[in-house]
Design brief:
The complex is a heterodimer. Chain A is of the alpha+beta class. Chain A has 20 helices and 27 strands. By secondary structure, chain B is α+β, with helices and mostly antiparallel strands. The chains are: A alpha+beta, B alpha+beta.
Amino acid sequence: MIGARRPDTQPKLDGSAVFGTDLEAPGMLWAALVPAPIAHGHIRSVDLGPARSLEGVVAVGAADLPALLPGATGDPDRPLFPTETVFYRNQPLAAVAAPTRELARQAARTVRVEIDPLPVVSDLETVFPEWPGPAADSSPHVAAHVRAREGDVEAIFHRAETVVRETYRTSSVHQVALEPHACLAEVRDGQWRVRTSTQSPFGAREDTASLLGVPEESVVVDGTWVGGGFGGKGSALLEPYALVLAKASGRPVKLALSYREEFLLGRTTLPSVIRMETAVSGGRIVARRVRLLLDVGNSLPGRDFATGYSIGFLLGPYRTPAFEVEGYAVRTNKPPFGPHRAPFAPQCAFVVESHLDHVAREAGLDPIEFRAAHLWKDGDSTPLGQPVGAFGLASVFERARTIAARWRAEAGPDHGVGVAAGFWSTNSGAGGEVRLLLAPSGVTVVQGEREIGSGSVLGGVAAVAARCTGVPRERVTVTYEDTAHAPFDSGVYGSRTTAALGRAVEEAARALFAEIAQRLGTSEPVSLRVADGEIVAVSGTRWRPVRELLTESERAAGGIVTTGRHYGKGGAIDERRVEVGAFYPYTDFTGAAHAVEVAVDRGTGTVRVVRYAAVHDIGTLIDPATALPQIEGGVAMGLGTALTEEALWSEDGRLLNAGLLDYRIPTLGSVPPIEATFVDGFAGAGPFGAKGLGEPPIIPVAAAVALAVRDATGAHVTELPLSSERVARALKLL
Amino acid sequence: MTAPPLALTVNGQRRSLADVPDSERLLDTIRWRLGLKGTKEGCRSGECGACTVLVDGISTLSCLTLAHEVDGTSLTTIEGVANDPVGRAVVNAFAEAGALQCGYCTPGFVLALVGLLKERGPATPSQELLEDLGGNLCRCTGYLSIARAVAKLSAEGP
């Protein structure tokens, strides 16, 4: 299956790959941030004097910014350093730089901070112990409010044969990329230059410019190899602080988080409370009511995207003739909410699948048959009125269900089998551009993303370029340029890269063939092939080596250059169904269904995962060497969300388990064999009908595990993760 | 506070390092004094295994080791691991099995596995090797491709 080597193998096995943490420059200083010691309070003073009295230490606080950034206002809603109010624990109050990392940390500790405490709101259920009423919209704790409906839900519920109402709770999960955030900043010739480990150099540029209040073109972001992203490295975090210190000191400045700080300052998925109500008559869902309270930490009012996007995952992927959906993004004294691989979709799938399984049981129906009968089929529309397009969800579910049935027949005592569906939207609508260079010996794709490990840039984009041009893969190179030189791209996120950048490559290849046809003087189709060690252009009986087609300036530049861009259209929802706030359409629907067998320890509630099967609707398989590992890695990460991962916040806004011993990710031996299969034939919007695969594999995991635990024991667990303790409680062992 | 110079063999080359503070971690010596950045800094507290190196052939967490503890020893890092047959076999097995994604944990896994094979010999069953690699964390692969690399070694012998 995995024939070809991953293209990033060599530098990652000989130690030469330079990550953000590895950056170094002559004369550089090390930086440290000064963290707020409490989660909410009025700032009385931040005294940098003691830090500045240490030799070689440069310190920057809010008062220093006007001199460092003359005329710049920054983002008034997101000041680099707060001047009046602290909103979350460890919020940076100042930043220091020193010749050694130890001295920088020591200097940060000497900063004297005086803050008058304000009441801390850490748990969203203390804000809204009951469902928020009409007055909630004026609450300072509401960052966003959305509501949509179709049909007379109240009346349908009143008449229905069976009505099931349940409440679910999900946990706060961290990305836990092994490489903590790190960057190296320099200010010279009026340019703010930062090398950084990022999933989106252009996103980091835009964000950094906005936070500093400087023109975007004055910021240059140069990406490094990325030691894992998973959504955590999509926007600026450290870059502005390193840059202002570089400006203040006149030296290059390195800012790297410790792993503890990575937990404390990272933007993560925060807890939620979800209320599900379903009405059934005649074996069919007749109406659903979905209510979401999502903790968004210190996310800003009106800027919350999470709720309107995430809530759609609670409405699908099942046919529902009438519905009412309402959600609130709830501000608490935690760091802002951030994306975590398939943001919030695994949690939603856990809730939807567990709930509909429960509904079927309550209604006396077969739970799997009940879900299969309602799944969105190819050509259906979502409850919000968006057509799902070519969608293989029903096919993948059928296949996973067959595997589950086989395993169920073989399962011993205390073993159970679960099967769950999930869906995702390949975000191919976001923009991207490439330059394609055809040289006598090969093809180069010049673009602006670094490989984050998923393989989408060096594997996926390269495979698309080989397929579009006909040039063998070993002669295709994908190169990276910084934001001052690369064509724009919006980032490696949303499972979009192979699909969106791939479409840009396709367009550049079309332009290239048109150019070659003109030079060959033909209107017939042109192809490229390798003959005698070099690339030749062929059309009918005419052929010429590429070498001979180049103009003089192209020979100097290395080859023929064309460009391609892809700014796809997102889908549209039926806005008439929206009553409050903004709901977001998806782009390109992709389905997944997973089957899992678990064994549950009846004495402790501990769940062991025995075997796993993942079936995915991927449109067209583009790069097998990097596709299958995405499934394995995504499932493993999902098992963490399902079983062990839970960031615990105290009442005073403290993260209690900010370390890898207390926040448990899956370890070697805890991940079972995974049987991965692909269903093709439901073409996506990517090149050759490809759909994204970075995020879908994590989505159905927690749902499948929860259903398997229920199958094994009868325990109906309505909270994530399914820790030993929660399962033991459900089994009445505690 | 500084101690006498450190004398080390690093990937087969003799190195002398002056002015290394008593409190300096081997991880920082390797990365910032020797400039060998292939040894990765993860948690700095012995929880992730990313900083694993070989000290006289024994796999060692460089973040929990003081530089002066290894005075007079021979160090192997990812940059030099392919200099010997066991190291080369492990690197090739990782490459062939595609046992990496972001690559950040990879040097630690490679060195830990080389250490185990040197300690236990090539006939060590792969299940035993996998159990003893449990201290190395990977967030990308789900460990399955790493297990395939280990199985390859166990079947073929380094």
